[in-house]
Amino acid sequence: MQVAGLRRAAASTATASRPRRRPQDILTALLFLAPSLAVFGLFTFWPLLRSISLSFYGNDIVGRPTLFVGLAQYQQMLSSPALRDTLFTTAVYTVMTVLASILLGLLLALLLQARIAGIGIFRTLLATPFAFSVATASVIFAVFFNPGVGIFNGFLYYFHMTPVGWLTNPSTALPSIVVTSVWLQLGYNVLVLSAGLQAIPEEVYEAAKLDGAAGWSLARFVTLPLLTPSLFFLLVVTTILSLQSFGQIHILTRGGPAGSTTTLVYSLYLNAFAFGSSNFGLASAQALVLFVIVVVITGLQFGVLERRVFYR
Questions:
Q1: Contact 165, 147 (CB under 8 A)
Q2: What is the C-alpha separation between 101 and 53, in angstroms, rounded?
Q3: Do 81 and 259 contact (CB within 8 A), yes or no?
Q4: Within its chain, how far is the Cα of 210 from the centroid?
Q5: pLDDT, block means (10 residues), the chain with 312 residues
Q6: DSSP letter at 253?
Q7: N or C terminus of the chain: which is more exposed, having fewer CB within 10 Å?
């Protein structure tokens, strides 16, 4: 009884001490939020609602919705044999890009922590890919992958090896896109991980060394646990970016050869805009499927992997 009375007294005290919100304060807050709400409403919420609406309609030759078809677009998409290949390509591309960009970024960030003269120059150089646009980087790599004058086949010629059609061979086209995407994301990953490493207190390392930790054990039991917030952040962001990749695929391969680089986003583009197509209903259904995939994967990452993140 006494405990219950104390709890009620504490609750009433907290309620009494909580300031009341005046209508003027609420109006002021809404006025400050109005620009952001307008931007989100115009460029995020309205397109989402419009996509949901279009996915239930068939359209004419110019893309205008004309006939309500219900779930027919979803049935057509899910029953299409091409969807399985597209989802598989999307999954392989995403896994390869995320793992390679994070692991390589982690390795470079660890190497850049060395206390040697001029290391700041190398940090700046390795962060420069972050400043390149997707279009610029894709054009550069298109030259690198060129079978006649590209630098990659130049190395093969130098070692008397058979040249490779990097972007024209179905077995090498997707890995070539992955290389381009990893290079694009590498600068940002190195930047984030370097900031995370520099935020680890030096006293923690000194205490671990006094306990006998060194080398791999120091990295495994001290550095990596304290770096998990940065790694988890990059995992979520890089996964979303990879699932939404479009520019490098469009510029380098246009989904080919033989559909080997056609991801879900690029398939959406093919149905909605490419080659005079205007099947906005099917493309909208694909966009919503992609939205659900992103939400589910992000939810799983937060629900499962975040438990292993060490927030100090």
A1: yes
A2: 37
A3: no
A4: 40
A5: 49 53 83 92 90 88 82 87 91 96 92 73 75 90 90 89 92 95 92 89 82 77 88 95 95 92 94 85 91 94 87 72
A6: T
A7: N
Distance CA 210, CA 296 (A): 44
- Burial letters for 88-123: b for 16+ Cβ neighbours within 10 Å, e otherwise? ebbeebbebbbebbbebbbebbbebeeeeeeeeeeb
Helix (H, G, I), strand (E, B) or coil at 115: coil
CA distance 34 to 54: 28
Which two structure tokens, joined as six digits, stand for 7? 């709890």
Residue 289 to residue 312: CA distance in whole angstroms: 37
Euclidean distance between CA atoms 48 and 31, whole angstroms: 24
Percentages of the chain per state (helix, strand, coil), in multiples of 5 = 75, 0, 25
β-pairing, 65-68 vs 57-59, is antiparallel
Tokens matching residue 300: 């799983």
CA 212 to CA 9: how far, in whole Å? 52
Q: Which of the 8 DSSP states describes residue 42?
A: I
Task: Give yes or no for a contact between 36 and 28, defined as CB atoms under 8 angstroms apart.
Answer: no
68 membership: H or E segment, kind and range = strand 65-68
Q: Which two tokens stand for residue 310?
A: 């060490």
Instruction: Dig out the tokens for 242 from the structure.
Output: 């990879």
> Is the backbone peptide bond immediately before 257 cis, with ω within 30 degrees of 0?
yes
Kind and range of the H or E run holding 196? helix 170-198
Encode burial over 176-202: b for 16+ CB neighbours within 10 A, e otherwise.
Answer: bbbbbbbbbbbbbbbbbbbebbeebee
| Closest listed residue to residue 207, CA positions, set 191, 190, 192, 226 | 226
